[in-house]
Amino acid sequence: MTVGNQHRRRGARSRRLVVAGTVVVVLAAGLLVWALLPSSGGSAAPGTSQAGVSASGVSGPSGVSGPSGPPVRICDQPILDSPWSYDGAAGAYRTSGTPAGLPTFGAPGTDFPAASQVVVVPAGNNTTAASGGAYQVNNAVIYFEPGVHIIQSVLYAGNHSVYAGGYTAKAGKAVITGVNGGTANGDGGNYLASEKPTENGTVDNVWEYLTIKNYASSVNNGVMGNANGYGTSNGDSYKYDTVGPNTYGYTGQNSPPATGESSGGGYGILVGSYTTIKDDCLTGNAQGAFGGTAGINDVLANNEISRNGLGIYPDIAGGGGSPHSCGCSGGGKLFYSVNADIVNNWIHDNYNVGIWLDFDNTGALISHNYISSNWAEGIVVEASYNSVISDNTLVGNGWASDGRWPAGVRGGSCYGGVTCTNGYGPVTGHGGGNPYSAIYLPNTGGDAALRAISVPSTITVPGCASSCTVTSRYSGEFTVTGNKLTDNFGGVAVYADTNRFPDNIDDDSSCSNTLGPLDQPNSSTYYTQTKVLQTGADTALSGSSVTSAGGTQTLCSNYGAPGAEGNAQQTVTAPSAGMAVFDERTGKFLGNVAHVTSAKSFTLSRSPGTAYGRGDALLLSAYGGCGPADYFNGGRGVASGRPAADYWNHCLWGSQNVTVKDNAFSVDAATVTGCTITANLCGYQQLVAFNGGVPALMQYWFSYTSYIARASGGLGNVFSDNAYTWSGGGPGSWQFRGGNVGTDLTRSSWTSADGQDAGSSFGS
What we know:
Blueprint (H helix, E strand, L loop, with lengths): L16 E3 L2 E7 L2 E6 L54 E3 L24 E4 L2 E2 L1 H5 L9 E4 L2 E4 L4 E3 L4 E4 L1 E2 L3 E10 L11 E3 L10 E3 L1 E8 L4 E3 L1 E2 L3 E2 L4 E3 L2 E2 L4 E2 L8 E2 L7 E5 L4 E3 L2 E3 L4 E6 L5 E3 L2 E3 L25 E4 L5 E3 L2 E3 L6 E4 L6 E3 L2 E3 L6 E4 L5 E3 L2 E3 L28 H8 L7 E4 L9 E3 L14 E3 L6 E4 L2 E3 L5 E6 L33 E4 L5 E3 L2 E3 L5 E4 L23 E4 L5 E10 L2 E4 L13 E4 L6 H4 L26 E4 L2 E5 L15 E7 L7 H4 L2 H4 L10 E3 L2 E5 L7 E6 L3 E2 L1 H7 L7 E2 L2
Parallel strand pairs: 5-7, 6-8, 7-10, 8-12, 9-13, 10-14, 12-15, 13-17, 14-19, 15-20, 15-21, 16-23, 19-24, 20-25, 23-26, 24-27, 25-28, 26-29, 27-30, 28-31, 29-32, 30-33, 31-34, 32-35, 33-36, 34-37, 35-38, 36-41, 37-42, 38-43, 41-52, 42-53, 43-54, 52-55, 53-56, 54-57, 56-59
Antiparallel strand pairs: 1-2, 2-3, 4-5, 11-12, 17-18, 21-22, 39-40, 44-47, 44-51, 45-46, 46-50, 48-49, 48-51, 49-50, 57-58
C-alpha cells in the first residue's frame, strides 16, 4: 500500500517580486511588506538538527521501567499554548530588535538561531497570500498571530523554516482553517501545506503551536507533509500542534468534499524520513493521524492520538463496510520504515487499529504508550521484522469500552451479520471465526539476515551519495515484553500465512500481473514470482521426456486457495528452459526443463526414474523468484537464486523468533462486553499458521503449522514468564490456539506439548 500525493490543487505557483536586492513578502490580500532577500545558506531547520544514518537512539523514557502509567492528556492543555504573544502590526523583521512577544532568532541562544528573519502573518483571510507564495521563504520564521487564519487553498512553504503560532488569552491560539475542507472556489477540497524541498529532497521545516483543521485529502494522502514535486517531506518537525479535525475527503475538482463517516479522506500528517512528531494533539483526522512510506529514523513521541479513522470507517469488508476500505486506517500507519520510534503516546478511541506498522518495517520501537479503547487491535505489526514492543499499557481495545461505535455504512453490519457497534472483537470471533488479539503479529518476526538494508534511490540518506545502506536495530529478534494488557478482547497473536510474500500483499492481485519470461527475475526490488505452470493428469513421462495433451497452463500463485480465481486454469503457455519441475502430489523434485518443443512437450535434465507415478500433475516453477523452486530443497531462510541487492531480503514473510515474555494479561469478563458469549472467542493467545496457501510446495519444504507453536525445535516463537488473571465468568480462563489456524489447545497442551509459557503464572 502506498502513501503519496494523488491530487494537487490547480493553480497558483509561488511568486516573489524582487526589486533591487529586496523581496516583496505578500502577507495578506492587498498587503505588501518590504524586506531584504534572505540568505541562501543553512542545512538544518532552525531549532532542529538533522538525524544521521544510524538508529535514532530513542529507547523509551530515561529512568522509566515497566508499563506506562495513566495517560497524559495533550489535547486542549496548556502545553499547546505558545510562549509567543505578539499580536500587533504585520511585517518582516531581519534584526534581533523585534517587537516583544515574537520569537527571537539569528544568534546563539535565541529561539531559532539559524533563521534570518521573522515574517508576521495577521489573523484573517490569508488564502491569496498562502497560494501566492508569500510564505514560501527559506531560513525564516513565519509567525501566525493569535486568532483564526482562513486558508482555503495550498499554503506554499519553503524549507529550513519555522511555521509557528502565537497565543493570547483574549485571541486564543493561532488556528489555520480550511473552513469547509479548503474549498476556495467550491471545488473538491484541499490539503494545507505544499513544501519546497532542497535539491536532495529534504525540507526540514518546523511546525509549532498551530491548530490545523478543516482540510481535505484523499485516501493515503495527507493534510500536512506534502513536498512539492517529491511526494512526502523529509526532515520535518511537528511540535505542540493540534492537527485535526480534518474529516473531509477529496472527491474531485468540481465536487464538494465529503465529510464524516466514510468520507474517503486521508491522514493528518504524511511522514517521510527523519520526521519528528512530538507533543502534539492529533485528533479527528479522516484516515489516521499519520501515515508514511519508506521512512528512516522517524520519531513519534508524547502525542495524544485520538478519534482518527472515521473517514474510512468501518475499514472492513461486509455489507456495512466503507467503499474506501483499504486496511489502512486508525491512529496511524507506517510502511517500509526503518528504526521508527513510537514512544510515550496516548493512543485512544481510534476507529480502527491504534498503531499499525504494515509490511517491511524493521527496527521499530513501540514503547511506553498508553493504548486504550480503539475499535480494533491496539498494535499491529504486519509482515515486518526485528522490533521491540515493550512496557506499553493496553486497556479496553477491541470492544465498546468507551461507548458504542457507529453502525456500518447505511446502518449495515461489519461482517457475517455482526454489528460494528460493539467493536472489532466480536466481529473477528462471531463473524469471522478467528479470535481477536490486542497485539497482532501476522507474518512478522526476527530475522538475523536483515541488518544492513539497501535503500532505494528514491530515499535520501544524509551523508550518502549513492548505494546507501542503513542498519536495522534488533536484528534477529522480535520481542513483546513488559506490557500490561487489561480488559482487552484478547491477547497476543503470532500468525503466519504462507500465501504472503513481498509485493504480494494478500495474493488478491496476482492474476492481473503479466506473466513474462519465467526464467528471468521478475523484479529487481521485490523479486517475486506470482505465477507457476501446471500440467494436468494427462501427463506422460518416458525417461526424461514429458508430454501433456492439455499442455502446460498458467496458474495464479493462489491457485490452491478455495474459491480463488487461480483455481481456473489459464492460458496454455510453453515452459522456459531451466524451470524446476515437481510432482504436484508428492512434492518430489524431478529435474529442470532442459529443452522445450512446445507447451505440450519438453525434456527434463534427467530421468526421474521408475519411482515417479505417471498421470500425476506436474508443477513448474522458475528459479530466481519467489516461486516453489526457491523454497524446495532450500534451508529455512535460504532461497536459491535470491539476488544480493534486493531491498527486503526474503521471499516469504515468516513468523519466527518472536518472544512474548514478562507481560501481564488480565480480563474481567463481566466488564468486557461480549466476552461471556462463547462464539465471540474472547481471551485468546495464539501461535498459529495457515498452511493451505501457495506456493503449495512450500508445505513439503517447511510446514509452519507443524512448527510455529513449538517452543523447542520450532520457529523460535516463545511465550514465557507471563502473568495471567481472569475473573467475571465467561470462558473462565485464558484460551490458547496453536499450530493450524482454528486449533484449540488445552492449557496442558500449550504448556507441555508445545512447551509454551514456561515460568508463567495462571491465576483465577
